Structures are given as structure tokens and as C-alpha cells.
Amino acid sequence: MSTIQDFTGYAPTWCPGCGNWAIGISIKTALSQLGYSPSDVMIAFDIGCSGNMNDFVNAYATHGLHGRSLPVAIGAKLANHKMPVLAVGGDGGLYGEGGNHFLHACRGNHDITMIVHDNSVYGLTTGQVAPTAQKGYKSKSTPTGALEVAVNPLTLALTQGATFIGQSFAGDITHLIDILKKAIQHKGFSLVNILQPCVTFNKVYTYQYYLKRSYKLPETYDKGNLQEAFATCEELNHEKFALGVLYEIERPSFHEQLSQLSATPLIDRSPYKGVSEILQQFI
Ligand code: SF4
Hints:
Largest sheet: 8 strands, mixed
Bound molecules: iron/sulfur cluster
CATH superfamily: Thiamin diphosphate (ThDP)-binding fold, Pyr/PP domains
Oligomer: single chain
Number of helices: 9
Distance between the termini: 51 Å
Helix content: 25-40%
């Protein structure tokens, strides 16, 4: 049985009070409570403050460019579909530059967990506007207010075929651990959008801002009801944030539909066997 210490890497360099601290602790705790050890898990990190977690968490990991953590995670899953695979990044990378990968990960129902630090700014580059900021949001790069409407990742995931959509808040670690565990256990593509205050460069979307506008879904909520889920996900457009599992259904994941992978993961096959047989013909 692993402990949270087994997953602990270098001391984080995040700003004091940043929501990333809670997310880092929650990912390590969720993996540990699910019984995984660092050698069981692969995490593909995006670039940015969130991606710096690559140094702060022990696991098999990659640290790539904006949005590209998703294809890396999908490739790793196809190579070893017995292994839990996470893709971790910010809203800039995963809903901006990586937006196309996001859509295709949803529709393919690739069995990975996409964990998004949603803070509406590019924190590592000191606070430019990012895709989930509302129209009119003022930042270093939009001094008179953002001209575009915000990306709604929840409705986007829902309409593109995601089979698990969760949302949590970096100010509530207990809730966040619970949602992460459910997402990692889900068979198929899972999105966890985490409301993560960037205390240094976002003075609008603060802990108080999210506390005032978020609520936990009641037990009576039907997470398998598409219409109800759409109405709940759409609330994001009006700065109202439902916390919990907003949508979950069963659908065969991408790798489950590949007969070539039904016997054994690719990684367990000898890469040289076929080559040797071919060479024998010429010896
Ligand atoms: Fe967190 Fe923002 Fe500091 Fe980055 S810049 S570590 S997102 S508070």
C-alpha cells in the first residue's frame, strides 16, 4: 500500500496560496487511496504552472508543450492500456492550444483522465487572458477587456462525447479528492475541471468569487440524464459553478474496440519477434 509520501517529489515552487497546492496534494492522495504506487501510473503534464507539478509528483511522467499532453497520454494508454494515465494542464493549454486534442479525446472516449487547473490566465507567463475568462475580463493582454466569449469546457465535453464530466474547487480538498478518484476509476474519457484561483495574476476569480457562485450537486441529481447535464454544464456561462459529477455514462472506450489489444497490452509483446521471423527467410 503506497502513501502520499511515495508520490512526493521536489518541494513545489508555486506562489503561497495558489490553488495548485491543493490540486497537487489531491492527485497524490487520490492515487494513493486507490492503491496505486508511483510505478503504476503515467502522468502527461502540459506546460505552465500546472505542468511544473512534473517535478513535484513522483510517477512515470512527461512534461510537454501547450495542449500536447493529451496525445501523449492517449499514446501511452494505447501502449499499455492496463495502466492508469492522467493528463494534467491548465485551461490555456488544454482548452486553448490543445482544444483540438480535447475534442478528439472526448469523441474517441480514450480511457484517460484529463485534469484541468482552470484559472482563466496564463500564470507562468505572468497573467495573459486564457480561454475560460468571461467576455470583458481585463488582463495584461486585454487591458480594455476580452473581446471573445469564454470557452465552456463542460458543454464542449458533453457535446463531443465525453463519458465523465466532473467539476471541483481547489478550496475544497475533500471534495476534489473524491471527484478525482471517481474520474480515475471511470472506464473511458474523464474530464475534471478544477476551479483554481491564481492568487498572483487573477484578482477577479478569487477564492471568494468561487465560494459565492459554486454549489454542490444534490444527491437527487441524475448524472446519466443528458438534458439535466446540459442545463447544469450551461450554468458556467452565467458564472454559476456546479461541483460534483455532472455527467457519467458507459460507452466502450477506444482501446476496448481494438481487437489487436484484447489479448495483451502492446508493451508486453516482443518488438523483435516479427522481425526475426522475416530475417530467417534471408539467412
Ligand atoms: Fe499559481 Fe498563479 Fe502563482 Fe502560477 S502564477 S503558481 S497559477 S498563483
